[in-house]
Amino acid sequence: MNNKYDVVVIGGGPAGLASAIAARQNGAKSVLIIERDKELGGILNQCIHNGFGLHHFKEELTGPEYAGKYIDEVDKTDIDILLDTMVIEITPDKMVYCSSSIHGYLMIQAKSIILNMGCRERTRGAIAIPGTRASGVFTAGAAQRYVNIEGYMPGKRVVILGSGDIGLIMARRMTLEGAKVLAVVEVMPYSNGLNRNIVQCLHDYDIPLYLSHTITDIVGKSRVEKVVVSKVDENRNPIKGTEMEFDCDCVLLSVGLIPENELSNELGIEMDPRTHGPIVYENMETSMEGVFASGNVVHVHDLVDFVSLESEKAGMGAGRYVSNGEVSKNRVVRTINGDNISYVVPQYVRKDNVEKSVELSFRVRRPTQQVNIVVKDGDTIIAKFKKEHVVPSEMEKVSIPKILLEKADKELVVSIEEDT
Amino acid sequence: MRELICITCPKGCHLKVDEENDYKVTGNGCPRGAIYGKKECTHPTRVVTSTVKIVGAEIERLSVKTNGDIPKEKIFDVMKELNRVVVKAPVHREDVIVSDICGTGVDLVATKDL
Amino acid sequence: MYDCIIIGAGISGCSLAFELSKYSGKVLWLEKNNDVADETTKANSAIIHAGYDPELDTLMAKYNIWGNKIIPTLCKDLDVPCKNIGSLVVGFSEEDDRTIEMLYKRGVQNGVENQRIIKQPELSVMEPNLNPDCTSALYAPSACIINPWQFAIALSEVAIQNGVELRLNEEVTSIKKDGDIFIVNDTYKAPLVVNCAGVMCDHVTGLIKKPDYKITPNKGEYYLLDKSQGNMVHHVIFQCPTKIGKGVLVAPTVDGNLIVGPTSTNTDANDYSTTSAGLKIIRENAVKSVPNMKLQENIRTFAGLRARSDTKDFIIGEDKDVHNFFLIAGMASPGLSSASAIALDIVRMMQEKDYFLNLKKDYVSTRKVVRFKEMSHEQRKEYIEKHPEYGRIICRCETISEGEIIDAIRRSPKPVSLDGIKRRCNAGMGRCQSGFCGPRVQEILANELGVSQLDIVLDKNGSYILCGRTKENGDE
């Protein structure tokens, strides 16, 4: 442990593990991972269900196993690790201030920094559900930690708001542990979770899913006693007269994730209001030279495999930055949302830094069948990809070969066109 | 003809299984879908992931999984069996915690080092 | 036998306990909840008003002006966040201009100092995010923002240190009189009783006589927005009161968030629920003052109760029928701004009756707490070397260390709930709303109190968080 590193990685979850390894393999001579928890692995440690790693390891792993494989890799290297240590502040001169009861208050000078802080859950406050302040309302992730790591039950009769994957997974998990899950309630007319999770988490256990419904009241003096669920119209406003009551002692919220960018904001890097994450270039470098970001801190992913992949890119970028210096910004194209697209990452591509191809990740705004994903610059079509269906809950990726990318002058507009 | 959503991977292919024609599967994106489709219509199975009590570790629960598919109707038997298990640290990933759990022929293994 | 029994541990009770604790005399203090400052004091606009609002010659006017003068110093002594940022009552029309003129005059008569009517373009310079349609505003530089529950808790901590005996979870259900001595709950005896039971004041008075006033709990709902919105305004922004209502205020909080509200609906004493109708009213009204504010950056909605009296003023002093039975009742707005002054006045009234005449030789009147967040990098380094527990950050959103949490638990009154910790040191106040730190705080609390994590409540008694352990029903 010293106080100067080539690369300092903020966060030891799946993103941090992958970027640290990649940075070390690509030119960084000293790498440090700073993790706030007492162990590496991040949120994967509480995701004890399987379904991870099919892309990356070509086998179906549980969260802790996926993390374990990466931790084994890190252990084989000389990457330094600080556990139980919270990064308090990062400054533009790349000083990292962090605090720990074991290591004290540390001020570490980095040549390059990779932001891998992940994301946090939206809370009851964020969606302003009316009702009392009774106990028994948890985010699904907080409940997951209680059940899977600490071995506590947060409730016995449960209503889940939001059909994101964590909500679906927790519906099954609570059921297996003896709780009764009365309903999963989703405000949108479609689920935000993977189809496989609807099947194996809800259908397997006869848990009803109410689409186009929301919780309109939480009742209970000290502990939740009841929730009122109402149907919503196409503008997501509750329809009077459609109220249903569920007697429950627990509400779990799976209502979205937000990139955790407190440190990025204080650092002053440029942010994208669409993703709530930093604006990044093709190699995951942010608007601040030598500061990289990847994983859920940039945009919320649905598959950890893609977090790893993206983080390898960031790690490689950081490794090359410390050995080769700055990348030329001579020829930059910007990526832009076209029709039915909510965001595109990376936001900028430096054409001179693309070797073979550049990968664009994006999400659609609404589910659509039989589409073409079209990438254009003005009227010039750069690339076109056929796809059977696209849904907002699944991140899409297209890869644009360098040769096609060269055709773009200023912009890459990504849009979804229905195939007629 | 039975319609299913494949749960083998996050893609979630929409399968059609012809029950009259030796459970022939269409709509699958890969061979695993064909296997799943037939199995789901004949003897559905699942992998169970859960926790067991652990003593002597930093935390009090160890994450575990069945090291293979078990019959779907045995899920709650397995869960009940897990309630009785107490493991002593240290434990390593892939260590067998209970062999042949509930007579399924499948082992329960640790998914984490503790 | 005690010299005085205080009923209620909101801001009124805390202020009085603090002042009385400086004098020789035995004080017993009863509170029905498991913590102090757990009702009206924890859910309000968190403002020390300048004092132009109360009608002339009311107790509200008198104590508000007096309180406004003494609270900033008191907060400094007690290490309680309080910022003198001033307030603006903004107007959009000629009618509003007349109201502002009227408020200005009333302020002058009440004794508010340094008020000024501000016009455009100065107004937009002072508050760039204010609706440009605002034509004028009453500027009252003496208004402050405060952390009300930390204020009350600090007062109670010092009071207890000075010897006041606080009994939590002790609801007052009977008050009798035996000659000159009150007997409370058939157990506690004292010649003086002070009723500062907030929304339950009339009920407590009813235990000794037929109440001659009625308290109607009046609910105010609020939004609390993320710190990303905290710089939206730099003063407390009020709207002009009209026939329809008082309008909603927008103000920064001492923690850097933005508070928006309140509504006003009569309700019952246990109703702390927010409603979709109430929240809608806030949304619609707030944007009139500050159109650019992002309400989707909300981190919490909450509701608080005003203890409104049908006498339309505070009820302060000795009851007119029951000798030595004192009231601090009807403490609706500006109750928070007034409580400190009222406490001084009640002590004076008791002294006129020859009680609490002698200051203790060694009483405490200040308090200091450690706040990791406010230290410089060098101070942190030095402090953590000596006290490693301040190095472990438990609440990321608010940067609160384990040391601060343990320190809060070891002070008296001892917090027993997650919200008790939140009120004392802000852990869980931030944007993740304790999603991350909640379980950790729970663990620290359980360890320090020597109880199981299952026994830790969220807030009031009965608000249990966990309902058992997994893997515990093996034989079922």
From TrEMBL, chain B:
SUPFAM superfamilies: CPE0013-like. InterPro entries: CPE0013-like_sf, DUF1667. This is DUF1667 domain-containing protein.
